[in-house]
TrEMBL record:
It comes from the Bacteria. This is Phosphoglycerate dehydrogenase. The keyword Nucleus does not apply. It comes from Tessaracoccus bendigoensis DSM 12906. Keywords: NAD, Oxidoreductase.
Length: 317
């Protein structure tokens, strides 16, 4: 069995009996000599390369995506009989760590500290998340803060205990209400009431028609005044015009985003010039953990007719 792994993946690789692991350049179509591959790892390939692979790799028995969101892989058009496995769970730790870093950067006013350092200003009096302000009751610490995680899945449940350890009160928001691991989770019907008491809103929503611009002007109006927002989900889940308006008006004290609607973020975007907005270039993930174990399990499952983990339901091409 031949397994194609993009050189963009730098993590561990499994040792599998009778399997040949071939490292390929993910930027170009698969070479002719490797069109007999039975397993393709999707990680870093441009859409056109994935589409080419779907057409030319006719002997595939498994497409293993290391991406948490397998949308580009599904859209490539692999045959219906070829199982596609997503990388759900592989990025829970790194994305949760990044979200926590962005939260603390806002609450401990690190962006302002960096701005002051660039101006050679030593100011021990700034007390806001992103700009100078008095003690007006807005959140400046996780201790006692109400933190809402919108898109409460595996990443959210990884992040929640870390917030709790620092004294934050965590509430989740998802399509289905309930209690998960001791965290109360509300659905859309209960979200407005929760937002009204939210000091820190963390968004980890996936791409879906129902989540497009989910954080719009109406939702910003429902959010507690002076709150901060962190988005490590998908850029199209936030209405960027509404985000700019909320930051410029001061209703939103600060925000940190790892994703934008268009990536790379265009040079002319007004987001670049907002002093109370921290931007990272979609780097929250990018370090899949235990991908070797998932790949090994799914190859064994394909060989033995077992259950493929993280199976994505696809419709044919």
């Amino acid at each position: 069995m031949k397994v194609l792994v993009p050189k963009a993946y730098r993590g561990k690789l499994p040792k599998i009996d009778d399997a040949e692991i071939v490292i390929i350049d993910q930027r170009v179509p698969v070479p002719k000599e490797h069109l007999d591959a039975e397993v393709l790892v999707a990680w870093g390939q441009p859409p056109e390369v994935l589409r080419d692979s779907a057409e030319r790799l006719t002997k595939l028995r498994l497409v293993q995506a290391f991406l948490a969101g397998p949308d580009p892989v599904v859209a490539a058009g692999f045959a219906q009989e070829v199982p596609i496995s997503s990388g759900v769970g592989l990025h829970d730790g790194p994305v949760a760590e990044h979200a926590l870093a962005l939260i603390l950067a806002l609450l401990r006013h690190l962006p302002l500290a960096v701005q002051n350092a660039e101006r050679h200003v030593w100011d021990v009096k700034h007390a806001g998340s992103m700009k100078e302000r008095a003690d007006d009751g807005r959140v400046t610490t996780l201790d006692g803060a109400n933190v809402t995680i919108w898109g409460y899945g595996s990443i959210g449940s990884t992040l929640a205990p870390h917030i709790s350890l620092l004294g934050g009160n965590v509430t989740g928001a998802a399509r289905t209400a309930g209690v998960r691991g001791g965290v109360t989770v509300v659905d859309d019907a209960g979200l407005a009431d929760v937002l009204a008491e939210t000091d820190v809103l963390v968004m980890i929503l996936p791409t879906h028609p129902s989540t497009a611009k989910a954080m719009d002007a109406q939702r910003f109006a429902q959010l507690k005044e002076g709150a901060v927002l962190v988005n490590v989900g998908r850029g199209n889940t936030v209405d960027e015009k509404a985000l700019v308006a909320a930051l410029e008006s001061g209703r939103l004290a600060g925000a940190a985003i790892d994703v934008t609607e268009v990536e790379p973020l265009p040079a002319g975007s007004p987001l670049w010039d907002l002093p109370n907005l921290l931007i990272t270039p979609h780097i929250a993930g990018g370090r899949p953990q235990n991908a070797d174990k998932l790949l090994a399990h799914n190859i064994a499952a394909v060989r033995a007719g077992g259950e493929v983990r993280n199976l994505v339901r696809v419709t044919g091409r």
